[in-house]
Amino acid sequence: MLPLVLSHELVHPFKFWHHNEIREGMFSGNELYRLCTTYKAEDRQKAFGLAIGLSEHGAQVCITCMRNEYKVWVGLRNLPTAASASLEEAVIV
Most buried residue, 13, 16, 77, 80, by CB count within 10 Å? Predict the structure, then answer.
């Protein structure tokens, strides 16, 4: 499934506690997402490449767009173990 792409103004951000850290989250519609990573506007291809890669591993992915950056979000409800490992590796790389 292809990632959902939304304007950042259409989502509702929140903070939550996970693995001894405060994380960024957002919800849109009936779905909850965790922030994976943020890219500058000029790195748009990287953002979409990561989002497609994560969705191929079974994660539900959303990209939010702002004038100067793209944020890649991963769904919290159905985050598979494989995608979770890929997510951690992708953020480090």
Answer: 80
| 85 DSSP β-pair partners | none
This prediction's pTM: 0.83
Instruction: Give pLDDT tens digits for 22-69.
Output: 999 999 988 999 999 999 999 999 999 999 999 888 889 999 999 999
Could you tell me if 59 and 74 are in contact, meaning their C-beta atoms sit under 8 angstroms apart? Answer: yes
DSSP lists the bridge partners of residue 30 as none
Residue 52's contacts (CB-CB under 8 Å, 6 or more residues apart) are: 2, 3, 61
Residue 2: DSSP 8-state: P
